[in-house]
Amino acid sequence: MPPHGPVASHVLEVREAARRFPARRRSREVQALDGVSLGVRPGEVLVIVGPSGSGKTTLLRVLAGLESLDSGRVLIDDVDVTDTPAGQRNLAFVFADLGLLPHLDVAGNIGFGERARGSSRAEVSARVIDVADALGLTQSLGRRIDTLSGGERQKVALARAVIRRPKAFLLDEPLAHLDPVLRSSARRDLLEVGRIAAAPLVYVTHDAHEALGIGDRIAVMRAGRLVQVGTPDEVYAAPVDTFVATFLGPLPMNLVARDGGLLGIRPEHVTITARADVDGGVAGTVDHVTHAGADALVGVAVPGTAQPVVVRVPWAQRPEVRTAVNLTWDAAHTHHFDAVTGRRQANDGRH
Amino acid sequence: MVGTDPGSRRSRSGRWRPGLLAAPYLVGTGLLVAVPLVAALGLALTDYSGLVSPEFTGLDNLRRALSDPALGRALTATLLLVLLVVPLRLGLSLAAALLLYAPRRGVARAAVFLPSVLPDTAWALLWLWLLNPLYGPLAALIGPGSGFLTDPWPTRVGLAVMLALQIGEGFVVCLAARSMVAPSVYEAARAEGASRWYTTRRVTLPLMRPALIFLAARDVVLISTAVFVPILVLTGGGPRESTTTLPVYLYSQGFRYGDLGYATAVAVLVTVVSLSAALLVAAGSFTAVGRGRRRRSAGPASATPR
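Predict the joint structure of the above. Result:
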C-alpha cells in the first residue's frame, strides 16, 4: 500500500518516521513509530485512529515538533522542518487535557501564544476579541479558567489555536474529557473551525466510530505502523487485514474460518432465517440478543467458530434466544483474509 | 468501627471521634503553648528577676518598652536582617528548585539541603571561621578591611548570607510547588513558541505564587522571632548592637540582666508585631491578586493578555 497517493501537494507530511522510546525503570522499550509516512492534504480532516499504544499520539507530537525522531523527516509545504522547534512551525496543537493556564483568564489564555511570540498588547487584544466573537466567548473573556464548564474550556483551547492562523490544526483526543452530551456540539465546533480557517485538521482518536464519522480520510495505526489510509468508505468497505476489519466500524466484522482462510462479514450483511427454510447457508443457535436502539444485535453460535457471529436485525424481527437459525449472506459483501497473516486476499467478492 | 452496624452506636462514637483523634495534639498544644502563653502574659505585668517571686507592676513594662531606645535599635536590626535575608532565601530556594527540578539531580538536591541538616551551632561556627577577619578565607578573599564581624554592614551581610544558605525547607516547598504545575501547561507554552524565560515569568512564577507567599511570610516570622542560636554564636549581637535582633535582645534582657518580667513583655510585643508583619505580607499579596483579577474581569474592554 503506498502511504501517500499520487503527489497531491501536502500541507504537512512525515516520511519514514521512526521513534523508539528506550526502556525505563517501569516500562519496556517501545517502538512508537516504525517507518510511518503520511501526508496531510489541504483542507481535509485526517483522522489518525488506533488502539492505545499504537503510536498515534506520538505521530501527532512528531508533526507538532513536541517529539523528536530517531530517523525520518517532517515537512511543511515541502520544506524540511525536522529540526524546527515546535513554536516555530506555525501549527496549532490542542492537547487532550487542553493545557490551559489556570492563573490567566480566558482572554489571557487565548492571547498567550501571540504575546509569547512578541505581538504588541493592543494588536493581540483586538485579535482576541475577534476570535472570541467567532467562537461565542465574548461574554467569558474576563472569567478564570476554573469557573468554566468543560465545553467552554474546550472552546478556549480552540480559540487559542485559531488565533494563530495556523497551517494546520493538530488535535489530540480533543473530546476525550467531555461528557457525551457535549461531544457532538464540540465536534461540530472543531470541524467548523477547520473549515473557516481553511486549514486541515489532523485528529487523533481511539474511537473508531468517531473516526468514521468525521474523517475525510482515516489513517489506521497499530503497534507503531500505519496499517491503512483511505476514505471512510474505502477503509470500511475494504479493510486491508483482520485488525482493521475488527477495529474500524460501529461493530467489529465477524470472522469465520472457511476453506483454510478467514471469511469476514459485517453484522448488517448477514440475514437470519428460521431453520425451516434451509437452503444453503450456515446453521447456528441464538446465543444472546442485545438491545441496540432500533436494532437488535443477535449473537449466533456457529459450530467451529469461537466467537458468536453477530447479526444486526431490526428489533421487531429479533429471534428468541436458543432457537435454531440459519445464516445466509450475499457473496458480494464478504471479505477473505489469510488465516495466518490476517491480510486481505485478492480473490474476495468485492473488487 | 467502619463496617459495624450503622445504628446509633456508630453515630455517637462518630461525633466524638475527631475530638478523640485530636486529643494528644490538643493536650500537647495546651500544655506547651497555651499555658505558657497565658503565664507569659501574666509575667509581662510583673517585675521578676527569677530569684525572688514576681511583683505585679501593671503596665510598667509596656511603658518602658515603648520608650526603650535599645529596643528600637533591636527592631531596626531585625528589620534590616529581614530585608536582607527574606528576598535572598526566596530567590535561592526558587532558583535551586527550578534548576534542580529535572530528574537525576539527587546529589545536587542533597547539597542544597545539607546546610539545613547541620546543627545551627556547627553551621555558625563554620561561618565564624569563614568570616574571621584575621584568618578566615572569605575575609582573605576580599582583603584586609573586609569588616566582617567588626563593622556593622559587612557583618550584617555576612550573617544574612549564612542564614540565607539554610534553605532546606524552602527549597523542598519550591520543588513541590514546581511539580504541582501540570506538564501539559509547559507543552502548551512550548507549542505556542514561548521562550523559556517567558514561560518562567508568565507561567511558572504565577503558578508557584501561593507557595512563595507562604515562604516569605514564614521567613519574616522566623527571622524576627526564632532565629537566635546562629546569631548568638556568630556575632553575639555585635558589633555595636548591629545584629542584636529581637530574640537576641530579649535573651540578654532576660538572662544576662536578669530582667525576666521585662523580657517577657518584649516577647509578647515581638509576637504581636511579627504576627502582624506576616499577615501583612500575606494580605498584601492576596489583595494584589484580587485587584488584578477585578481589573481583568471588567468586560471585553479588558481583553488584554498580560
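Residues 119 and 232 of chain B are 14 Å apart (CA to CA).
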